[in-house]
Amino acid sequence: MPPSISTSSTPWSQPLKISPTADDDPLGILEISGFYGPGAWLGWLLTIITSWYNLYRKPSARRPQDTIVFLLGTHWAALDLIHRTSLARKVTVEELNGMQGSIAAAFLVTYWGLFCALSQIMACFIQSSAQWAPLSRRGVILLFGAALPSISLANLFRLLGPFFNQPNTTNFERLSSIPALYIEGVEVQFLLLNFAASLGVASIILLCLVILTVVDNAFHTRQGLGFDPFELPALIIASLWLVAPISAIVNVKRTWNPLWWLVGGIFGPFFAMIGFMLPLFPIIFLIFGAYSPSKACYFMPCAPQSIYEWDQAFALCIGLCILVVEIGPDVLKPARRRWRSFWTRSAEDAPLLEGEPV
């Protein structure tokens, strides 16, 4: 078993104890809610898969309930992350240790939910721009649904801020051992959390700019929520370059330090871009043999529940039902058509086989 974390040494230099026991749970893994358990997480993941499928097959669907379901799960985790982040700022490092597992679980669901929402928003804009059509209802829901997760991730700077203002060991410990985006042997989750928080800030700015642009276009064209395909890249670039100054104004006390503005202006956009490319990190680590799913809390929270527990099985069943209801008809329709064609040909060939005139 990995050694337990001690606040008197350098905890970020040791593997985190993500498989604790009742007597040894330094990160509060056993306190993680069943909402983040394996069955609930897989059920939530199935709703995301269903949403992507319908985005491809039914981009203009008027009732994107699959998208609403996965956004609801993401919003619940985002609210939980805001709540726990606020509590974490009021406790000591020792008290924070028992909260890190719950913070990590809420963060992972929030981040990956926002990542999927932003990806689908871009896909919706590409679809509408290619057809010169108004933004679909799914795109509008995603646009407004990504706001709360973005705010929740940006709120992480309330924990990161003290480290930048007073970069000492105590403040570093506040985030160095949170088991989120964690891969054993590659303890860089402090940097990855910075990237994710920067993505949250950039996402808020981008959503505001996009909403203003879409509404302005709709007001002038009177043709619904239209969008010029050439406007999106410009808005993305603008939102990236606004990450550093807005983060500085809101979270960092050294706002008027010229060095901070220079460094932030140069690296702030790259932090946000890297925050959107975090899915690539496990692939890189896997290539170099440094990634093992059993020793990582990167995509799925390290929750203590078993998938065989009744509540986890129920959550997984709900996700499977949504997947079957949404995808099942499209899968069965070709099979039904082939089956009918087979029986039609059989009925036509039957008289010939019996030697009767047609």
From TrEMBL:
Q: Does the keyword Transmembrane apply?
A: yes
Report TM segments.
Answer: 35-55, 103-128, 140-160, 190-212, 232-252, 259-292, 312-332
Q: Which domain of life is it from?
A: Eukaryota
Q: What is this protein called?
A: Uncharacterized protein
- Keywords carried by this UniProt record: Membrane, Transmembrane, Transmembrane helix
